[in-house]
Amino acid sequence: MAIEVDIIHDVEVLLRNLNGHELLSYAICNEECGAETYEWLAGKTQGAVSEELRRLAKEKRKHVVQIRQLFEELYPGLEPLDFNAPPLDALPLCCELMKAKNAEDALAMVLLSESIARDVYKKLQRMSKDEKVAGLFARLAEIKEDSYRRLFKLYESLAQESNTF
Q1: What is the pLDDT of residue 64?
Q2: Which positions ≥6 away from 133 have C-beta within 8 Å?
Q3: Distance (Å, rounded) from C-alpha 26 to C-alpha 34?
Q4: pLDDT top residue among 109 and 90
Q5: The pLDDT of residue 91
Q6: What does the mean pLDDT of the chain come to?
Q7: How far is C-alpha 78 from the chain's CA centre?
Q8: CB–CB of 28/78 below 8 Å?
Q9: Residues 6+ apart with CB under 8 A from 77
Q10: Alpha-carbon torsion 21, 29, 110, 100, what sign?
Q11: Is residue 136 scored above 50 in pLDDT?
């Protein structure tokens, strides 16, 4: 698996220089892209994996609504910016998911994505100067951690099934 570390570094540098308005805009784009990716992947898998990916996509759509509500509260009359920067949690998924040979491989990529997303939201929390924004990012980091744990249990059960003789 090859992850473009330079891209991740570039996006992190970009994020360090953003204000609250821009950080929330980035988070909206990040969650929307993640939801689309999980919906696409759910269509490529079956059973429990597909169901979990659909659930995660739905969760990401809820996050978009929450972030937009906070955005409207903090920045009335403004629209979120569109970001051309790739979402950090979807970077490993972009190329590697296309190469996944089975649901176990795909789930491994999603695990990595959720782990990176958790870390990204923790960084955004630390970078935010607004308590409400920081609080939202802290909650999103916790949700990503919970998602990671659920996905890991599913991954373990798939690995056990595929390793039985």
Answers
A1: 93
A2: 20, 23, 24, 70, 74
A3: 12
A4: 109
A5: 60
A6: 81
A7: 24
A8: no
A9: none
A10: negative
A11: yes
**What is the average pLDDT across 6-24?**
73
CA distance linking residue 155 with residue 88, whole number of Å: 22
CB-based burial, 126-155: b 16+ in 10 Å, e otherwise: ebbeeeebbebbbebbebbeebbeebeebb
pLDDT surpassing 80 at residue 93: no
Count Cβ atoms within 10 A of the Cβ of residue 36 and give its class: 0-12 exposed, 13-18 middle, 19 or more buried.
middle
User: What letter represents residue 32's amino acid?
Assistant: E
Is the domain covering 5-162 a CATH 1.20.1260.10 domain? yes
The answer to whether the pTM exceeds 0.85 is no
For residue 133, the one-letter residue type is V
Q: Is the dihedral of CA 86, 118, 37, 156 positive or negative?
A: positive
Distance CA 127, CA 27 (A): 13
* Residue ranges covered by each domain of the chain: 5-162
Q: What is the pLDDT of residue 165?
A: 40
**Token pair of 47 as six digits:** 């059973």
| Per-residue H/E/C for 88-142 | CCCHHHHHHHHHCCCHHHHHHHHHHHHHHHHHHHHHHHHHCCCHHHHHHHHHHHH
